[in-house]
């Protein structure tokens, strides 16, 4: 059985696009926790995936779009993205999103 602990010193930062990096914080077959850092004006392009996702704004300001609806989110705000729903984000003030996915996103490993 793999260890249930994840050491910050061993977690990789992976570029996702200009001004965006992700770091898988913890994961198992049914659940994944990811930290995504954004520079100001960076964009998480519109996309969809079969995973259900919850995003929590740790810091910064984001314009989040889910199924065509736009909302400004700041520190402490969160949102739910159902599977196979078009969504994306634009960073207005540099910050961090904490994303959870179920099941795990194997494409992030």
TrEMBL record:
InterPro entries: Bacilysin_H2HPP_isomerase, Cupin_2, KdgF, RmlC-like_jellyroll, RmlC_Cupin_sf. Residues 35-91 form the Cupin type-2 domain. This is Cupin domain-containing protein. Gene3D superfamilies: Jelly Rolls. The lineage of its organism: Bacteria, Pseudomonadati, Bacteroidota, Cytophagia, Cytophagales. It comes from the Bacteria. Coiled coil: none annotated. Pfam families: Cupin_2 (PF07883). It comes from Hymenobacter negativus.
